[in-house]
Structure formats: C-alpha cells, structure tokens
Amino acid sequence: MNIVNSLTVRQLKKNRKRTVVTVLGSIISVAMITAVCTLGFSFMDLMQRITISNTGEWHVVYRGVDKQQAEAIKKDEAAQTVILSRDAGYAYLNGSQNPSKPYIFIREYNAQGFVKFPVRLIEGRMPERPGEIVISQAIITNGKVNYKTGDIITLEIGQRYAIRNEGMYSLSQEDSLLRDKDGVYEALSKDFTNIYTIVGIIERPEWEPAWSPGYTAISYLDESDETVQGRMNASVILKRINRGLFEHARKLASELGIDEVAFNNELLRYYGVIADDTVRKMLFTLTAIIMSIIIVGSVSLIYNAFAISVSDRSRYLGMLSSVGATRKQKRNSVFFEGAVIGAISIPPGIIAGLAGIGITFYLINPMVKNALLMSENLRLVVLPVTIVLAVLISAITIFVSTWVPAKRASNISAVEAIRQTMDVKLTGREVRTSKFTRMIFGIEGDLALKNIKRNKRRYRATLFSIIISIILFLVVSQFTLNLKKSALLTQNGINFDIMVTIPEVNNTRDVIIESIKSLDNITSLSQIQKISANAKTDAGRLAEYYRKNYPVGQGNEEITFQVFINALDDESLLEYANEVGADFARLKDAENPGAIVIDTVKYRDTDENKYSEGKVVKLDIGEKLPVYAYDGELEKDVPLQPLEVIALTDKAPVGVIPGGLYANLHVVVSTETLTKITAGNENVAGSISTGLYIRSSNPLILQEDIEAIQKNLPDNAFYLYNVYLQNRREEQMIILISVFSYGFISLITAICIANIINTISTGIALRKREFAMLKSVGMTPESFKRMINYESLMYGFKAILFGLPVSFIIMYIMHLVLGMKFSFDFSLPWADIFVAVISVFLIVGTAMLYSGSRIQKENIVDALKQEFT
Amino acid sequence: MRKIEILRVENLSKVYGKGETAVKALDCVSFSVKKGEFVAVVGPSGSGKSTLLHILGGVDRPTDGKVFIENTDIYALDETKLAIFRRRQIGLIYQFYNLIPVLNVRENITLPLLLDGRKPDKEQFKRIINTLGLADRLDYLPNQLSGGQQQRVSIGRALISSPALMLADEPTGNLDSKNSREIIELMKVFNKKLKQTLIIITHDERIALQADRVMTMEDGKIIKDEVIRS
C-alpha cells in the first residue's frame, strides 16, 4: 500500500467512532438498496406464481395445430415443455337442475397439461389415457347430476351456435347461455360421440367463468386421433423468457404454417418482457422513487463524513503536498477511503438487506395472504442480478458522495493546510448576529448562532438530513392516516357484519331466509325488502346540490327523483319507529300507506368540495309523496300508491345507508305497506330485493355456514358480503402498508441520524481548542452547556421551520393527487407532527450534549495545545 | 509604599502519569508575588515553567499544594466558581493567541465581561484599544489580522476585567522581532501605568532582563529567584 493510502487507513482507525458511524450508515443504505431490489424481484416472483396457479404455466400458445406441427414445436430449442390441449366441445348434461348451465364442456389435455394447468383433484385420479375423464364437482353440487367415480357416460359432443336473425355464429365458455323471454336461442351441433369413464372429480377450475353455460370436464388428449388434427392447442413453457420470445414464436408459427399464435401476457408481464406494460412501468417508477430517496439520504451521509474527513486530514494532505504528492494522489486518497468504506459496508449491507427482507416476509406473509386474498406467499428471491445491482448502486452512491471532497482534497496546498486557514476563512458579515440575540440569549446564544453561521456547508448538510427525515416521516404518517380515514369512511354507517342480498322475489327466497335465520352465531338479523322507485315533487323543494343531478327543474316545475323504499321486518321496524318517534301502528296500516322519510343526510358536495349535511328534499309531515316504479316489461314507470310522510328523520336503520358520496332519499315502510303498494303490478313486485343485515358473534364461521347453503342453490340465488372480513382485510392492508412505510422511514431516519451524529460530534470535536479557549477565559460549565443547548435548539428550530411547511405542502399535494379531497377534509396528523418535533430536538440535543460533555471533561491545557490533529 | 501580596504559592507539585512513567513537572514550588510586580520565569524546555503558569492561571489542577490569589485558595473553589474567578481575576495570554474565530476584535477583547454579563467601561475600553493600536480594527475577525495584531487582541482580552494577575506564556514566541518588542513594551506599559501584576514565561533572555524579577526553573524547581530592579 502506498504511503498516502496507508495514512488514510490510519486516519480511519484513529477516528474510530466517526468511521464506525459512517460504516453503519453505509451498511444501512446498502441494506436498503438491496432490500428494494430484492422486494421488486420477489414481488414479481409472487405475481408469477399467483398467475400460474390461477391460469396455468404457459408462455406461448399455438392454436389449431396438427400432430406434425406439434412435433415441430416440441423440437423447438426454446421450448422446455409443450402442453397439448383441445376444446373438444359441449355435450348436453342430462338432468341438470341449473337452467343456466345445461352443458358439459369437455377440454382435453396431454399428460403435461394435467401437471402444468391448474386442475385440482378432489377424488380419484387424473385421466391417463383416452376415454377417461374427470368432472367438475359443480356438476354434482350445482347441476345436481349424481355422477360418481367409476361411472361410464356417453356424450354427444358438438359446438354451440347462436341462432339469430343475423345468422349463426359459434359460442365459447365466455358466452353465457343465450336465452330471452321466448326461451333459449342457441343450439348444439352433433359432431361426434365419445364414451368416457369417470376416473376422478376436480374442483371447479379458476378459469371457468362463473356465467359459462358448461360445467368443465377434462379428458385425455389422444395426439394421434385424426379428429383432433388441426384443432389442438400447443401451449409452450419456454426455457428462457426474454424479449425475443415474441418474434421467435411468430417466426416459428409462420414457418410451420400455424395461423394463430398467442401469448400469456398476464404471466409474461411479471417477467418484465412486455414493452409498455403498466405493471412494469409502475413497479419501475416506484422502485426508482424509493431508490432515489435512499440514495439522496445515503449520499448526504457519506458526503458529509468524507467532507469532515478531508477537513481533518487537510494538514496531512498539505504536508504531503509540500513533499511532492500530486493532485491525483491526494484526490485518490479520498477515493481510496471511499473504497475502504465500501468494501467494509457493502457485504454486510447486502446480507443485512436480504436477511431483513426475508424476516419481513416471514412475519407479514400471514397478513399478506389474508389481506390481499392471495394463494401464494411472498418468498425471498435472490438473483445474481439483485446482488450485482445492489453492489453497483451502492458503489456509485459512495463514489458520487466522495467526488466533491476528493476534488477539494486535491486542491489543498501546503501553506493553507499548515496555516489551517481553510476552515476559518470568515468575514464579519458571515458571522454577524443581531444585537437582540445577545440581549435575549446572552453571549452563549450569540456564540451558538455564530458557530452555526461559520460553517454553512456543514450546517446545511446537517439541516438537510433533519429536514428530509421530518418530511418523510410526516408524509408517510399522513398517507397512512388517509388510508385509515378512507377505510373508516367506507365503513361509515355500516353497523352489520354480513349482508346477504336476494336479488329477486322467487320461490327460493323464503327458503333462503329461513335457512339463514336458523344458523348459529347470529346476534341480530334485520330483514329489509328494497325497491328502487321514483318520486315527483316541485323542483324547488329538492336540495340545490341534488337538483344539479337532474337536467330539468330550476324553478317550480315538477321533477322526478330517485327514492329507495325500504320495508323492515316488524321487530326492526318497531325499534326504529320508537327511535325516531314515529307511530308503529300507523306504519302497519297498509290501507293508508305511510313512510318514515330519511330526509336529512350527510353528503359530499362535489361542487363546493366539502362535506355537507342537509335536507335532500323539503317535505312536510302529512304530505303525500307520489311514487313510481319501473315496469321492465312495459318499459316505463308505473304509479304506485302515494306514501304519506309520517315522520322525518336523520337516523337510518341497520342496513339502510343514506348519504355518502351521492345523496339519495330513503324511506322506510312496513312490509305490509310495500306489498300493498306493489300489489297491482307483478313485474314491480317481482323486482323487490331482500337484504339480510346480520350482526354476528363469529362472522367467519357464519359466512362458511351461509356459503354451505349457497352451494346447494343455483348461482345468483343470493349474494354474500362479509363486511367484517372486508374491514379486517382493509385493516390488515393498512397495517401492511404501514409496516413497509414506517420500516422504510425508520431506516432512512437511521441514515439521517447517523449523518446528524457524525456532523455534530465532529463539529464539536473540531472546536475542542476553541472550547478550551472559552473555558480558559472563564466560561463556566453551565454556560458551556447553555451554549451547546442553544446550538441544538437553533438546528432544531431551523429544521422545523423549513421541514414542517414543506411537509405540509407535500401532504396537501398528496391529498389532492390521491383524490381524497372528495372523501374527507384535509387535516394534519398533529400527533405525528408533535412526535417529529420532539424527536428532532431529542436527537440533535442528545448528539450535542453527548459530544459536549466529552469535551467538558477534557483538560483545558491539553486541548489548547492541540494542533488540529 | 508597601506592596501587597497578590499571589502566594505553597508547595506546589504536579505529577503527570503514574508509577514508572510518572513525570514530576513541578516539585514542591513555593513563592509569592506582590501587586504590580513584573516577573519573568525562565528555564530550559521541560523545566516546568509552562506547567507552573497554567496552574497559576487556574487552567490546570496541581497534584499537591495551594495557590492563593488575593488570598483566595483558587483550588478550593468548585469548577464554576473557579471559572468565574478566572474571568474576573486572571488574564491569560498564550503563544498562539487562542482567539475565538467567530468573534471580532471588540468581542474577543470584551469576552470575559460578556461571560460575566457585564458591559465594559467605555473609557477603560477606549484606553486599552488605543494603547494596543486596535481602534480601527474593532470589527475585524481574527483571520483578518496579522500575528502581532492577534496577540494585541489577546492582551486586550487579558486586561479588560482589570485582573489581579496577567499571565503570559511565551507571548512573543510566534512573532517576529519587531512585533515581539512592541508586545513586550505594551505589556510593560500596562504593568507600569496600571500597576498590572505580570508574570511572563520566556526563553528569551532579553525579555527576561526587562522584568523586575527573574525566577529560573529547572527540573520542576525554582533554582534561582533574583530581583533585578526594585
């Protein structure tokens, strides 16, 4: 090692504390860089696995191939595995109890298909030869056709065709059964007959659309079968995924005379090979932003450390200059120092980053799976490119940080260094303070302020670190607060755990209601029948804001507006009526239909951009409100009996959610009243939906029980919405985001704290002699402490003076950009602001006091003798 | 007129280090100085003269012995009281000036008073700066002054609170001969005119011979204490 580098190493060893702090800060930043890289790749890996589990693992599909073409594809050097499949067609499912699903849809796979495509076996085994078939469990549970393993079935297989005036066209599983009021208007061709043995039962595949008319059955593809020639699909899993795969596949298709080639873009996007892909762009942008923040914080720390180091070593560098060291040698000494710091901090930084992310995944995986409803766990993916990227970015960060100090070092002349005039080239103006400073804060405050002014660069670097920390902390706190507020808002007014909606009046409705009512874990159940109607009133009586939704009516013309009629069960209605002071018996009198009107709501006025509370429409008690309902058959509004306004209120019963983003008028009636007013029209009566609003002691178990009821009914019989689960998912999602955000912030703050400690402690150490001078002239220990305290206060106040307003501005911009202005008012996270302010003073104060106390203990004479070593 | 005793040193010892590596910088030194005396302390390197001065100045504690300044045992005071005593009663001048870089000339000179929360007497201040020739440099920072000018500031600071003792450790060590002469002359002026008690450490015989009394030190002891002029 040459003498310059040797001196550098010795200096690093001598200033052990500062070196350690710098190395620690670098390790944190390398760890963060590694973590971000790893997170990106791990996230892509997760999405790849989820997509594969949902839609199967394949990258390219060649459609309509024959045996020779399939062989050629198999021989393609880019192909790892080739899955052959065919959609054989449809056959009638005799005995199907589901009128929307009269078919079996038969797909065929070769052996690899059963392995690579997501087919989950419940019973039996997968087909191994032609003539064997597995059927979807839904055929049994939903279609109510009692097939079992071992049965032999004969299927006449063909294609579906629509029959319309425009002519015939073929249909796929994406097309639901074509039928209207006149019946089904599609037909099935009879192409061939096959006899199958059922060898197993599978779960309904994820790729079978809910509305498809055919239950899935999968058989074995006989590649040599003549009937399949030209109709097979060859799905290819590639050996390597790169941007060239598209051209290669198209070229191969062209060479083999294959007309159709498609790509699994949904999967490929997570390999980053799709140009202009929004996912890739978003991930890249997010990574770039986060990486930039990390790099800025790191550069600030490392630059500061090196600037101090150069300042420290300026005497040596000057002496070296006087004995003939060149500029390049002096400059390279700084780069060498950077290399040493890098060499020490990069390996442990990478390990720390990987370990940190690994541990984070382990801890959050249960939450992630639940909150984001994912079938796969996040796993730590360490690729060589991750390590290379982390090393490269870290090295560049260190290099950039050392660039300016290195240049400065190269310019140090012998004379300047010996005279030590570099650091104290001051003018009176630079350190001028106002008379009031001394008047109010004494000589200690004056000295503190002058000390801060003397070294603007170092002061600004420290200030910048503190400000960045404040901004990041507050912005992320606000972001998390907003998320919580949004979640609360969506939960606003919802005071039930599970909602069941039965869309139409049909013969299963009462069965459903009774079945559910009989379940355990129900604390309370409210049954509401609902219908959407229209009412008429003078335009002037509608709220100004509400009227804007309707094109006509500024004066007193009659205007039609939407009304929701909610009929409560007796128990709920009695409770509600008592609460709002309405006459229960009057409500039950269906001969004179009456309603409680919820006319006062909280709504978001999007024009004035604020939350308002007000009357939706001005109505008087005793007034009769004309209502109309839509008859689907007649395709027009038909009048129902007018409703007399019995009571006006701002309270809503469980299950009725007035207000929110759009104000609506809700009225509450008895079931008898609703039945009465809709009795005259079968179509209107048939469109009444029923909602069950359930509070549960165990919403998850209750949901399972309700789903068990749902399995035995046709699809669309009712819809289940577990609010409790949804809320829990939202909470977990927020926790997840908070974990990552606050974790990120903590680490950035750690870098900033390292920076602050470095700067402040070195600044104080460099003033050892000065402090000794002051003590020798008669500065008492208390006075000294006061001076240090004032300095920390000044750092703190300045940082807060800049940091807080900038944070507020960024928070407000975020509020606008994220569209939250339409949900709630902008407000500041005062608790977090308080924490930030206190923390700033704590950190700066502690750093200063600790460093100061060490100086305090030093012998005056020894300190005075020191010559800036 | 009988001169009063302003400084009394009794059995002062200072040992650095422990055991085998212990160095006795001062070995049972005792002497006294009267108000208005100009004492020069001379001796070879390592004789203990700087150590003696620092202990007299209250910036280094003795291992043993007592120092009385105006009958106050300064090492019986706690740190705070000692600091206050230092700024009111002792003026220290160093070889390397030791000015505060961020304070201008006016502030450096009045620093002991500022620390005491006092304002300088305008007349006294004017007298000092005129004598020191610093009247047109009051707003300058130390880095804008020459070595000689900085040392004058240092003298001004040592005198501003009219201390009992003015102690100077090689005050001309860093100056050229012309400046050295001027500095010594200034100190003599303050000694004669203001009856300022002055103790200077010097290795320069010419400077020593300008004093009223010369104490010669060797190996931590005063080997000779000679009154040159009364």
Account of the protein in words:
The complex is a heterodimer of chains A (869) and B (230). Chain A is an alpha+beta fold and 869 residues long. In chain A, 51% of the residues lie in helices and 20% in strands. Chain A contains 25 helices and 28 strands. The mean pLDDT of chain A is 82. The longest helix of chain B has 17 residues, at 177-193. Chain B is globular and about 50 Å long. Chain B is built from seven helices and ten strands. In chain B, helix 3 (105-116) runs parallel beside helix 5 (147-159). In chain B, a hairpin with a 6-residue loop joins strand 1 and strand 2 (23-34). Chain B has helices spanning 49-56, 79-89, 105-116, 122-132, 147-159, 177-193, 205-208; strands at residues 5-16, 23-34, 38-42, 64-69, 72-73, 90-93, 165-169, 197-201, 213-218, 221-227. Chains A and B meet through helix 12, helix 22, helix 23 and helix 25 of A and helix 2 and helix 3 of B.
Pick out its properties.
heterodimer, A: 869 residues, 11-stranded mixed β-sheet, flat, B: 230 residues, alpha/beta, Rossmann fold, 6-stranded mixed β-sheet, 4-stranded antiparallel β-sheet
**Number of DSSP-assigned strands of chain B:** 10
Q: What is the averaged pLDDT score of chain B?
A: 90
Question: Over all CA atoms, what is the radius of gyration of chain A?
Answer: 37 Å
Arithmetic mean pLDDT of chain A: 82
Oligomer: heterodimer
Low-confidence sequence ranges of chain B = none
What gross morphology of chain A would you assign?
A: flat
Helix-strand topology string of chain B: EEEHEEHEHHHEHEHEE
Helix content range of the residues of chain A, please? 40-55%
Tell how many strands the DSSP assignment of chain A holds: 28
Main sheet summary of chain A:
11 strands, mixed
